[in-house]
Amino acid sequence: MNNETIVAISTAIGESAISIVRLSGDEAISIVNSVFNGPDLSKVKGNTIHYGHLVDDGTVVDEVMISIFLSPRSFTTEDVVEINCHGGLFVASKVVELMLKQGARPATPGEFTMRAFLHGRIDLTQAEAVMDIIHANSNMSLTLANKGLDGVVYDLVQSLRKDLLQIIAQIEVNIDYPEYDDVEQLTQEEIHPKVTQLINRFSDILERAEVGKIIREGIDTAIIGRPNVGKSSILNALLREEKAIVTEIQGTTRDIVEGTLNIGGIILNLIDTAGIRESSDRVESIGIQKAKDVIQQAQLILFVLDNNQPLTEDDKQLLELTKHKKRIIIINKVDLEKELHHEFDHTVEMSALHKEGLDDLENTIKEMFVHGAIKQDYSQVVSNARHIALIKDAKKALQDSIQSIDNGMPVDMIEIDLKDAWNILGEIIGETSSTALLDELFSNFCLGK
User: Fold this and answer.
1) pLDDT over threshold 70, residue 275
2) What count of other Cβ atoms lies within 10 Å of the Cβ of residue 90?
3) Would you place residue 178 in the very low, low, confident or very high pLDDT band (cuts 50, 70, 90)?
4) 330: domain CATH number?
């Protein structure tokens, strides 16, 4: 990796009190110093801040505060300079333009964090946790992200790799030095329980990961039902705003209407779908097909029925369509005369019009998804989809090794699967990651981060 000095705006684009322009690299201090009217930055101590003006050919660009972080005690472990200028895109852009003029180059998205990773200051899971903190949308997701930044996921992966390496090393000793009497001979029968114990640990981690993924990404929740049963009214009541158009005309909702809701620290990604029925209207039919697609993808179904109407054939078809999904049956319009005489599991009675039953619905959702999760041991929680996929792959490699043992394969063949698992786990923390993977991951970061 070259030591070019990079520059980017690190704060959000738009008008604000302050914008921060960040530089990192061997020439960061000299570049800023060459246009700074203030203390000589080449002589100041690290972790200090200095007042002055940025000047371009004798013209003051802005009044600034300059923060100096000397290598290796900086985010990237390189010399880092942060220019605190006045807020506003024009001012910050002029500062960046001035830095480019002095020899810096524009940073690519995530390049500051990538440099921190490549220089060994953080591992790949901590780098990803930086983005998780930026995108956190609840207290629980923020806690989970901060645990990742603290190295919890790294420690967990390293613990698994260490246990795997002990088995691999013992196999290697048996293969290379079979004549040593003081070396414990590791046979297939002795490897089996060790690997099985590891597989059980993986299973436990993946089970907890389901909760972690929900905390991090939320629950994709579809509100479904026949036309005019009150789906849009329920969406509006949950969101506490008039997000969806509500009328007495059937088929008013013709497309997907979305919103998010925080329930006990868990985000619901709410989707109000078009009422599902047979329709000759082409536009409504497209909306109905979209609704059916959403049902297949949703993690939770809020199935709305009308208390004032008996169960219809359309209702029965929807009940059959969603019977294998995690769902809550909402009996809406309980303020009207009861005509619906059926009992269902996980039922909540509501009047969306009068905002009645909202607390019951929220509590039911908590019981289904969040029960006990708040007290979760975060040292064992993995939430990143990439991490989860790799842990599943590593578990599969361990299961393959068990299959090899059961088939009577020699220990050196069993070792191949164990090494595969060890390498796969290394991809999580970046020890065996490809350049293409790193480029892809960091390209999703903010510019200036």
Assistant:
1) no
2) 9
3) low
4) 3.40.50.300
The pLDDT tens digits for 96-139 are 999 999 999 999 988 999 999 999 999 889 988 888 888 887 77
For residue 248, pLDDT over 60 is answered with no
How far, in Å, CA of 111 to CA of 117, rounded?
Answer: 10
Residue among 238, 233, 273, 269 nearest 253 (CA): 273
CATH number at residue 419: 1.20.120.430
Please name every residue paired with 226 in a beta bridge, in sequence order, or none if there are none: none
Picking from 350, 327, 353, 354, the residue whose alpha carbon sits closest to that of residue 340 is 350
Domain boundary among 123, 155, 180: 123
For the cut 60, the answer to whether the pLDDT of residue 82 exceeds it is yes
Exposed / middle / buried, residue 223 (Cβ in 10 Å: 0-12, 13-18, 19+):
buried
Mean pLDDT within 410-424: 90
**8 Å CB contact between 362 and 263:** yes
Taking residues 150-178, report their average pLDDT: 83
Where residue 46 falls among pLDDT bands split at 50, 70, 90? very high
Please indicate, yes or no, if residue 176 is contained in any of the structural domains: yes
Does residue 111 share a domain with residue 199? no
Confidence category of residue 244, pLDDT binned at 50, 70, 90: very low
Query: CA-based angle 49:120:199, to the nearest 5?
Result: 135
Residues 95 and 185 in one domain: no
Q: What is the pLDDT of residue 157?
A: 93
Query: Which residues neighbour 349 within 8 Å (Cβ) at sequence distance 6 or greater?
Result: 307, 330, 331, 334, 357, 360
Q: Of the candidates 296, 322, 138, 144, which has an alpha carbon nearest to the alpha carbon of residue 225? A: 322
